[in-house]
Amino acid sequence: MRAGIALLLLLALAACGRIIPEGSLPPPGAAVPPAAAPVTANALLAGLAIGPALSALPLAERDAADALASFAESCPMLMAREDASGLTRPEDWRPACGDAGTWPRGRAGAFFAQHFAAVQVGDGRAFATGYFEPEIAGSRTRRPGFEVPVYGLPGDLVRGWPDDVPFSERSGRPPLGRYDEQGRFVPYFDRAAIEDGALAGKAPVIAWAADPVEFFFLQIQGSGRLRTPEGEVIRIGYAGQNGREYTGIGSVMRERGLLGEGPGQYPGSMQGIMAYIRDHPAEGRALMRLNKSWVFFRQLTGDGPLGALGVPVRRESSVAADPAFVPLGAPVWLDLDRPEARGLWIAQDTGGAIKGANRFDTFWGAGEEARRIAGGMSARGRAFILIPRVAAARLGAGPR
Known about the structure:
25% of the residues lie in helices and 23% in strands. It is α+β, with helices and mostly antiparallel strands and 400 residues long.
């Protein structure tokens, strides 16, 4: 799980539809007859329209080959989980997944053209931000200069019902919280309380970070690397969250006139926000504490940070999406006004700010270039979801 850096920091349904399989397709963008609405908001409720033929998309073979490799990694999970978007069933993916591992990478474009049909969810107008895997200074042990605890999941963080919430108001999953000394279920410690030592001696510490500002932004990303003075790299990933509300400090700063292009303002990017916090330590600390959410971590092994799908996310191939509108593991075509973000991606992750149809967060890997691209990524355009042809045929057939 992760959060979109640009939206998280800068900013805080139509009629149902059904599609018709390629072969008897109306023109791209044409509306299609409605299908039965699900009980919760998802891709079907947002409305569907036919996308372009995949052969008409300007898909570069290298882009397709990278996407195919990420798609193949997603297949075991893709065929084992239910699709909250309502577009597909696990068995729909079996033909494509059966071919993905052996398909020649030099003909990856043909793979997608053979197995998938493109659909537009809602109006198709896409907004994409970027995220990356930050690397910050850290240590396995506490020592001078390394005083910021990187907590693992605490044992007293549980789900339960507060006594003061009437039964009739309870819906969905129980909230996260803890039981206090009197046995009452209460909200979990927020960021300010944790920074003030509420978890000292009560939660496992997997490492110590050097810079609280860098660690704050690593928490927003949801994963990252800690590089020790000895040169060891410790990869950490999302293990859980305290259940407290997330506040995008960029939106607060913009409302206060701190971000913008005018005199005395800071650029509305991750770099600009960090510069303000460093230039104004007391005000910056207060801003960060407005975000009550705290992320807990676990140490990761493997060659990449794990996304919500449980497989490594890959630079310029993996994208975070809302699983209510995009099947996790599905290919996504983004036609955006930022050329570097245009092309074929695989939905392998989710994020706290990545909500709604056609909202995406592109992954750019690790390092300074990744930080620069992700920190300034804000792109708009159109999006098409690629679903198996058998799913397209089923959604386009039968009565309402």
